Amino acid sequence: xxxxxxxxxxxxxxxxxxxxxxxxxxxxxxxxxxxxxxxxxxxxxxxxxxxxxxxxxxxxxxxxxxxxxxxxxxxxxxxxxxxxxxxxxxxxxxxxxxxxxxxxxxxxxxxxxxxxxxxxxxxxxxxxxxxxxxxxxxxxxxxxxxxxxxxxxxxxxxxxxxxxxxxxxxxxxxxxxxxxxxxxxxxxxxxxxxxxxxxxxxxxxxxxxxxxxxxxxxxxxxxxxxxxxxxxxxxxxxxxxxxxxxxxxxxxxxxxxxxxxxxxxxxxxxxxxxxxxxxxxxxxxxxxxxxxxxxxxxxxxxxxxxxxxxxxxxxxxxxxxxxxxxxxxxxxxxxxxxxxxxxxxxxxxxxxxxxxxxxxxxxxxxxxxxxxxxxxxxxxxxxxxxxxxxxxxxxxxxxxxxxxxxxxxxxxxxxxxxxxxxxxxxxxxxxxxxxxxxxxxxxxxxxxxxxxxxxxxxxxxxxxx
Length: 465
Known about the structure:
about 25% helix, single chain
């Protein structure tokens, strides 16, 4: 019990949102920090890659390909890519010197396969490890070409349904190919189940779902990836790489994704740990696993966990202007290959009104008009529909921190990010600063200054640092 409590204390400081620990196939502990819930699938980022690897293993077993097949013979291309093979896609040893995603996104016809094939192969494939999500997309494209179905549809009857997974979704490229290297959403319990399947070498309830030989090959050290500078930071990213699985300390291996999405498998301890989180320090999360979960574990049920809610209960200054509309709001930068919910807001309207539960924030952006309930001291579950028509699960909290400062937090409960809007009011207008808890490329968005002018005229500017 003490071990689990110690892990929870550390995890809470690190931004962990959920976890599940299995030992001997039994649940030792499971916890969710409200408003995150066990029934809501989570964005897994690059943890998705391990599921793509598993699909390749099934296709190899089905006789559709081998790991020694040449990539250009399946996907085409102007040249032979210097002998690049399927195994090089699996081990991130494609011969590329940089991530291929930029070439994929730059293709004028949104043909990501052509973009991947055009990315310069600088080194002999198989000689150098370079992390490259485009390589996993190429595997997905290969599987779709050979099977005639998307990667998700290929895995559903062979893996997801037999394992009892909940709702699953997977992003696709503009041409309808599952992106493979990221974009999968599953529940935390599904992650733990997948880890248990691998711990049992692909066997589940008497049925061999994944060939044991593939599990062994996918999770053993295929290529070294030690930092050539001798740095000892991020030690668990220097233990070697398999087929879309990372080796880690304590003779374990893992699937992992950005901001702390993990499935850690420790065969020697008959243990699986699944984690979802929002952290920039992923090594610290693994360190917490090593510090608390390697010894004896007493079964315990973790309850009463909650992310901090805004507790501001101040009253606003009575003469503050109430509503603001931005005539020409700045166009914020885009995040590459990210869904609409993870993009910065282009705010065109903002208002705060009193409500029975506390306050309601009315925010109008490129997705439309939204109303966010703000009850100081608690989270209010809701949904937010983006311009792609997707109703994303969210929870909101907010309140007045002072007579001229309002804070709104929007937690995307299917994603690691919580977006905080801080509104600073003065006699002539409001300054709105949106900041994400985690994010690719940036976390601070353009700061909006909306000027409330008597008579309804409004001017807006971006505040530049």
